[in-house]
Amino acid sequence: MDRPSPFSEYRTLIPYAWRYRWYYLLGILCLVVTSGGQLFIPQFVRQAVDSMVEGSFTVGAIGTLMVTLIVVALVIAVGRFGWRYFIHGASRRIEAELRDRLFDHLLLLSPRYYAQARTGDIMARATNDMQSIRMATGIALVAFIDGVFMTLAILVILFSQNVALAAITIIPLPFITVMIIFAGRLVARLFREVQEGFSHLSERTQESIAGVRVIKSFVKESYFTRTFEQTNMEYRERNLRYIKLWGLFFPMVTFLSGLTTLLLLRYGGARVISGEISAGDFVATMSYLAMLAWPMLGAGFTVNVLARGAASLARINAILKEPPDIVSPVGAASRTDSLDLRVEQLTVIYPDAGKPALQDVSLELPAGRMLGILGRTGAGKSTLIKTMPRLVDPPSGTVFLGETDVRDYDLAWLRARFGIVPQDTFLFSATIRDNIAFGCDELDEDELLRVADISTISRDIGSFADGYKTVVGERGVTLSGGQKQRIAISRALASNPDILILDDALSAVDTESEEKILKAVLDYRGRKNTILISHRISALQYADAIVVLDGGRIVQYGSHSQLLQQTEGLYREIHDLQQLEQQRSRE
Fold first, then answer.
1. For residue 270, what pLDDT band results from cuts at 50, 70 and 90?
2. Which of 534, 529, 567 is nearest to 548 (CA)?
């Protein structure tokens, strides 16, 4: 089966080109005016040379030509501004809209996609590849239209003046066409390799910067320096292969186009001597041949830019064609009469996993109650709570909010019901206030102070230079683990969710602070649903019911007192170990 042309990727841009069709049409009109004005200049030169050679030179005639030339130059200048404004303006708008579309699509993709994708590669596609697409929709079109118009117009002029001379001087042109066709495919392939190399380099850089603390703590600077240098050298070699082809192509085109001038000197000069053509015709023909060199070089430039754009579009399209795993159904519900949560025979199996993350899990959380979840690492705790807002998609008929399957709700509405504080807290590079107010359209000062007091982050604010206006580093790198977790708790409380999920969200604070924060949270939320994942029994004792997970299954279920009455089981085992640790710490 024939492989599709790389230029077929441009089908993605058809709707955008149609939207800005008037920009392109006006730009092309201005471009034709500009090129047409340039075609008149050799004719003015021809008249001036012939008048001097024939002895009919007069100041008035030359003055008229000069004024006319100035007017033409002004028209060319206005036309050149016009095509730059309209065509480059359209390409910039297409770049911005396509980048918006890419970003919107990235937000729709599930965690499964990001588990496989590389952050540096995504960044490279959103930046470097977009620039190539902008050039393909802008300057490449200019070079193509200008090249076609100028080539046809110049050939018509040359053949209308002297058919034989024109036929001789354009002999090298077919060879240039063959070179352009041959180079197009090679350029596309080599540039795709360059872009992939840039993605690897971006990923290596991003990973090193994000993990700089770990690199320094393990004294691995020299190792990462070597790996970065290796990646950088690979990127350099890919660029050199691309530049070698392009560096060979341009001189060859220039050489072949220069042969046209050589042929003109040989055969055109002979015709001037024999009187078949005038000196002015010779100079005008030489000017047209010099002008013809640009369309030839422009054709190569067009092929290069279009090939680069096609390679970049293929990388962008690969993301745009990635279907979101989790979407809102047609006719999705956006209300519920009850906030009861119910899980029935839930089994979750991740792709490429050796065993189910959850198996036959069933539980209920009536509205206004608190559910505690305990389990060892890898027991399926986080997977369970992620199925409720469909961060992980549960099988149909297994997770319900009220009497409705969570898969039947509008996705945005469903997720707005939940506030999740994960153990691995993410803060944005913004002020502390902005991070707390992240989930709110507006947050007044009194509410800000209230949720900050509940999480006890307020007691640390005085140590920050600008208080709540202090800008935290990327991912909250300037804060301690406990500070990040408490800001995240304030962020979740500020949005006042119907169901609050604390996924081991107090693991970085001491037991005493955890108990204080948890009591304040429960007092603040009143009779709203709360789900607490914790490895500390002292925190779980406030729950109305507690689920103990082991190996993806529920192995124990009941209240704190009920589970303690069971002489065997994971809950009692962890309780006894923690009691022993507390006794030793007091001693």
1. confident
2. 534
Fold classified for 423-496: Rossmann fold (3.40.50)
- How confident is the model at residue 100, as a pLDDT? 92
- What is the token pair recorded at 491? 């962020």
How many Cβ atoms from other residues are within 10 Å of residue 567's Cβ? 6
Determine the pLDDT at residue 551: 86
Average pLDDT over residues 443-460: 86
The domain segmentation of the chain, as residue ranges, is: 6-320, 333-417+499-507+527-587, 423-496
The two domains 6-320 and 423-496 share their CATH topology (first three levels equal): no
Buried b (16+ CB within 10 A) or exposed e, 349-384: eeeeeeebbbbebebebeeebbbbbbbeeebbbbbb
Query: DSSP readout, 91-126?
Result: HHHHHHHHHHHHHHHHHHS-HHHHHHS-HHHHHHHH
What share of the chain in percent tops pLDDT 70? 93
Q: Look up residue 322 and give its amino acid.
A: E
Beta strands in 265-369 (DSSP E): 341-348, 358-365
Q: What is the CA angle 441-461-475, rounded to 5?
A: 65
Helix 173-210 crosses helix 119-137 at what angle (to 10 degrees)?
150
Q: What is the third-level CATH fold of 6-320?
A: ABC transporter transmembrane region fold (1.20.1560)
Distance, CA of 452 to CA of 461 (rounded, Å):
9
Q: What share of the chain is helix, strand, coil (3-state, %, to 5)?
A: 65, 10, 25
477: pLDDT strictly greater than 80: no
- Local confidence band at 1 (pLDDT 50, 70, 90 cut-offs): very low
Q: Residue holding tokens 């709360």?
A: 530
Task: Burial-class residue 210 by CB neighbours within 10 Å (0-12, 13-18, 19+).
Answer: middle
Mean pLDDT score, 469-490: 81
- At position 446, the amino acid (one-letter code) is D
Average pLDDT, the chain: 82
- Say if residue 22's pLDDT is above 90: yes
| CATH number among 3.30.70.1170, 3.30.830.10, 1.10.10.60, 3.40.50.300, domain 333-417+499-507+527-587 | 3.40.50.300
29: tokens are: 């009109």
Q: Which residues of 386-402 are buried (b: 16+ CB within 10 A; e: fewer)?
A: bbbbbbbbbeeebbbbb
Q: How far apart are CA 288 and CA 304, in angstroms?
A: 25
Q: Measure the N-to-C terminal CA separation of the chain; round to a whole number of Å.
A: 78
